[in-house]
């Protein structure tokens, strides 16, 4: 509108941060979501993507930002400067996030973007707006070993002052196993997309595979997106999306979020990015309890996760 002040993503969050707080969880069809998402559910459910839009779906802290950066670089032929045009959440909107004004919601951001848009979501399969499947949008799902995922999520919930208070580590494990964290059960989440991957043409990736051989997985994503980039460009994308480079990239490391919202003195947004860090957090008793529960919940599927031992 004429005369309307245009704010950068950082400025918008800075201005609105006084109204941000640890949002309580409300159930949406049995899935606990932050109340501002639950209160805007009809708008989210009715969202209609363009058929060319690309969806990146994950359980929280499973390699989302990493995959967003890879896809953006693939779409821009490895042009690092083009991918520094704005912070990750402005380049790749978060579908279900609805925050207090003047922070733009994910859906509002997309209204001002030309397709194909890179859209991020943590919604489980059953809560994803059906128009994504009606329009046959390409969907990339990334799954991470449950133990590493919970550790990363715990540290994130400690530093993210908009997520529910995580409480002590011992209790957090129990909440994770019961599916009581924001976005619900990890088990149901990874199984939901796995069971639908062939029918819906979902590219199902594993965080551990991406760490083991990033070039192979970047090429898999490239082919899935029907792109053809040179070996030189692929090498550049692998380098630019390494954990070390991304951690220092202000357009990818979430330093756009004010420190009183994302408290980096508690934990950085990009913390370690390692496989097996769970060994530094689980006691032998916790590990045994978790593994027994895991076996019960995952016995109906054969998803090839790396060993939890």
From TrEMBL:
SUPFAM superfamilies: P-loop containing nucleoside triphosphate hydrolases (SSF52540). Residues 51-301 form the Sulfotransferase domain. InterPro entries: P-loop_NTPase, Sulfotransferase_dom. GO terms for biological process: catecholamine metabolic process; xenobiotic metabolic process. It comes from the Eukaryota. Belongs to the sulfotransferase 1 family. This is Sulfotransferase. It comes from Gymnodraco acuticeps (Antarctic dragonfish).
